[in-house]
Design a protein that fits this description.
The protein is α/β, with parallel strands linked by helices and about 160 residues long. The protein has a single domain, classed as Flavodoxin domain (Rossmann fold, 3-Layer(aba) Sandwich). The chain contains 5 helices and 7 strands. Strands 1, 2, 3, 4, 5, 6 and 7 form a 7-stranded mixed sheet that branches. A hairpin with a 2-residue loop joins strand 3 and strand 4. Helix 1 packs across helix 5. The longest helix has 19 residues. The protein starts with a strand and ends with a helix. Bound molecules: flavin mononucleotide. The site of flavin mononucleotide has 19 residues, from helix 1, strand 3 and strand 5.
């Protein structure tokens, strides 16, 4: 099984969360191949992406929206087939009231448009704080690392249940 984590990060916060999510997946499901793909660094591996059972998208919040780089990737990737894959979203922001929910919902909307199945990443047996996707706040990421790891574990658990 393969899981892609596709993200944008200018100052490192979203990248840190992406790494915690990867750690959470691998801690519980070491047989899953996880690949981090930083859009700004041109790290997209389209073959791995299209082979992935789940794709987790992450972006900084810019003016209450997903950052323009991820929006641009979605806009330019209309031919990329993600139909039937599991999707989940995470964002980082300065403030919890800074548009985190709207940015996550935008990402989830793009997943729905691509025919993806959407996971909130909420805990089942284990608890995390997230309702519709993971949220990281600048300056508070390390303290919340366990939350991001649980998010990754929960998305992976759903992927394993769905795709074996
Ligand atoms: C152009 C710009 C717009 C931003 N807009 C918001 C915003 O609307 N709400 C918020 O909470 N934070 C906002 N931020 C803060 C970033 O979302 C936050 O610092 C984020 O963690 C940066 O992620 P990165 O380190 O991965 O680049 C903005 C930052 C920039 C540069």
């Amino acid at each position: 099984m393969k899981i892609s984590i596709v993200y944008v990060s200018q100052t490192g916060n979203t990248e840190a969360v992406a790494e915690y999510i990867q750690d959470g997946i691998l801690a519980k499901y070491p047989f899953i191949q996880v690949k981090l793909m930083d859009i700004r660094e041109n790290e997209m591996d389209m073959e791995f992406l299209e082979q992935s059972n789940a794709v987790i998208f992450g972006a900084p919040v810019y003016f209450t929206s997903m950052s323009w780089e991820l929006k641009k990737w979605f806009d330019h990737s209309f031919k990329v087939n993600l139909n039937g894959k599991l999707g989940a979203a995470f964002v980082t922001a300065q403030s919890p009231a800074g548009g985190t929910d709207t940015a996550i919902m935008e990402i989830l909307r793009h997943m729905l448009l691509k025919g993806m199945l959407v996971s909130s990443g909420r805990g089942k047996k284990t608890a995390n704080n997230f309702q519709i996707g993971a949220v990281g706040l600048a300056g508070n990421l390390e303290q919340c690392s366990e939350q991001f790891e649980i998010f990754g574990e929960c998305v992976a658990q759903t992927a394993v249940e769905l795709f074996g």
